[in-house]
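Homework help board

Subject: predicted structure for assignment chain

Our instructor gave us this sequence and asked us to write out the predicted structure in token form, then describe one feature. I got the tokens but I'm not sure how to describe them. Can anyone check?
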Amino acid sequence: MSLERPVPEPRDPVVLMPATALVLGGDLGGTSTRIVIADHDGNVVGRGAAAGGNPTSHPASAAANFGQAIHQALGDLDPALVRTAVIGAAGGSALSNPGVRAEFDAVWNGAGLIVEPDFIGDLEVAFASGTPEPDGTVLIAGTGSAAGLVRDHRLVRTADGHGWLLGDDGSGFWLGREALRSLLRALDLGEPIGALGEAVVKAVLPNRDEQANAEREGYNRLRDDLVRTVNSRPPVLLAELARTVVAAYEQNDKTAHALVKRAAELLTETVSRLRTTSDMGPFVLAGSVAGESSPVGRLLRQTIHEHFNGEVLTARDGVGGATWLALGVLDPALATRSNHARLVS
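My token output:
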């Protein structure tokens, strides 16, 4: 009879922690601010939400929205029980400004929290929301675009993310700007503007009297109206035209197809600055442009499969990813796969 004992199936480690230990995760986005508080078992015990908390795009209200979400999440919980906090900030670079950071510190301390918050970039949070793996690559393509190389859950290199003026190639802003530029070129040449061009005109000039303007001024007046209207608005609003491009793509508009294809190529080029064909680890894709329902996202997944190794995953709940990272800061043994599944589902 063999005396060998069967090898048990691996399990998540059992960690003894104070029953009162809590962690806080945050996600400060351009459209919303979300806070989650969880216990050391990964059970959510508090949630809070408010309007946009990106200090770059909402400098006047970001800190106040941050504070509102924190107070809502804490509820009746003792803030002193929060032992670690990880907060992803899409506009995190603005927090290096002493005045901006002072506003955020004021609402943090005003909530009674005594732990020092760890503000990290949205790339790290997006990666953690998509996979519990420590190493891999992340690409965010929404209003802007940026890629990052992650090692041991930390960002070690980035590509793009330079903003609408200097980069963000293949992003929603890029799609919107290129759609408008293609329309203006057609108007310059006196060519038909096509389905995409017509949709862009309606989006930018919703109250335009098409027949009257065409009879009186022709294309020159339309071109001038478009240029004047767009230049009078915040540039980032061009990203709203990305939806117009996608709609025209679904209608088989030739120009929209070319723009979608080029956006996917540019995003692939951004990733290639960080990752070689032999590198391993998963790809995590985040943002509306890189989403599975986006034509850019579908083409992007195809090109990644063709040129790189590694599983392609979609980012999930960003605030859940931040909370899971906070558990790992509290104790690395708590950053388990089961806790990850519980927090990002």
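Reply (TA_rk): Your tokens look well-formed. For the description, you could write something like this. Residues 23 and 83 are 6 Å apart (CA to CA). That's the kind of observation they're looking for.
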